[in-house]
Amino acid sequence: YKAKKRLEKYQRTEGTVLGVNSGKNKLSESYTADYVQGIRELAPFADYVVINISSPNTPNLRKLQDKSPLEELLSTAVNQIKQI
What we know:
The chain is mainly alpha-helical. It contains three helices and two strands.
């Protein structure tokens, strides 16, 4: 992750808030694994995590907005964040 390398070097100043955006890769076969990896790698540096399910450039991403896939994704993401 290029972002992780940048965050490892980033010197935060007092009072700043830092968020990270986790999303699905265009060519990935497992959207859940993409989000979990993003959370695992980047969340330790952040104050909050965004779960991106609305990118017009990522094929089929908006299907995650349906109730069942969204509930599964959010449950998995929350469980991963709790482990950090």
